[in-house]
């Protein structure tokens, strides 16, 4: 069963948030701090009450939460050059590592997509960290395709080499 999250779900959602953070910390230890969570108890309380940030949980037959999907309803585009329309942004989706492979993630994703259709959204978007290949494969299986690519240049203490034309402009 998939339903809206309630304050009673906070301890379980926090535990699942911890699982997600640990995956990200393994992939990008330069960004993520192990042993932390993206949201705290007060953040979750506010999200669970916010109609524009619905959180849905998957509950098994024993009433235990086995996964969640955190959503954000986004309206007008961030620039006047973009077609307007509602978007459902999936902020986070997690299935407990002990029950993965039982199609709970698929059910949560499809539920979120159905909610997006019901709310009049034109699309569902999300971000996936580079290196999280299992998540990429899962979302591709759900029919998602890349929309844009965010790139980075890590600035460190070590000497960096740029193309010669760039070096010439800045020398």
Give a quick summary of the entry.
The protein is of the alpha+beta class and 171 residues long. It has a single domain, classed as 3-Layer(aba) Sandwich (Aminopeptidase), CATH 3.40.630. It contains five helices and five strands.
Structure description:
- The protein has 171 residues and is an alpha+beta fold.
- It has helices at 10-27, 41-49, 104-118, 133-141, 164-170, and strands at 2-4, 55-59, 65-74, 86-95, 121-126.
- The chain has one domain (2-170): Aminopeptidase (3-Layer(aba) Sandwich), CATH 3.40.630.30.
- 34% of the residues lie in helices and 20% in strands.
- It has a 5-stranded mixed β-sheet with strand order 1-2-3-4-5.
Instruction: Detail the poorly predicted runs.
Output: none
Measured by DSSP, the beta-strand proportion falls in 15-25%
Domains (count): 1
Number of strands: 5
Rounded to an integer in angstroms, the radius of gyration calculated over CA atoms is 19 Å
Biggest beta sheet attributes: 5 strands, mixed
- Helix-strand sequence: EHHEEEHEHH
Q: Per CATH, which architecture?
A: 3-Layer(aba) Sandwich
Share in helix:
25-40%
In spatial order, strands of the major sheet run 1-2-3-4-5
Number of helices: 5
CATH class category label: Alpha Beta
Shape: globular
Q: Give the end-to-end Cα distance, rounded to a whole number of Å.
A: 62 Å
Instruction: Please state the average pLDDT score.
Output: 91
CATH fold descriptor: Aminopeptidase
CATH superfamily: Gcn5-related N-acetyltransferase (GNAT)
Q: What structural class do helix, strand and pairing data support?
A: alpha+beta
């Amino acid at each position: 069963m998939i339903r809206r999250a309630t304050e009673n779900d906070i301890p379980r959602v926090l535990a699942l948030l911890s699982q997600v953070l640990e995956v990200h910390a393994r992939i990008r230890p330069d960004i993520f701090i192990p042993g932390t969570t993206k949201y705290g108890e007060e953040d979750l309380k506010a999200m669970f009450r916010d109609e524009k940030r619905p959180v849905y949980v998957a509950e098994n037959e024993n009433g235990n939460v086995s996964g969640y999907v955190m959503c954000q309803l986004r309206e007008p585009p961030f620039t006047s050059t973009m077609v307007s329309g509602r978007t459902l942004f999936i902020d986070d989706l997690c299935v407990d590592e002990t029950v993965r492979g039982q199609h709970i993630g698929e059910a949560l994703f499809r539920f979120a997509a159905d909610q997006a259709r019901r709310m009049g959204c034109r699309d569902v978007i999300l971000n996936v960290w580079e290196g999280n290949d299992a998540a990429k494969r899962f979302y591709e299986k759900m029919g998602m395709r890349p929309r844009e690519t965010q790139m980075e240049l890590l600035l460190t203490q070590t000497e960096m080499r740029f193309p010669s034309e760039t070096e010439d402009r800045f020398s």
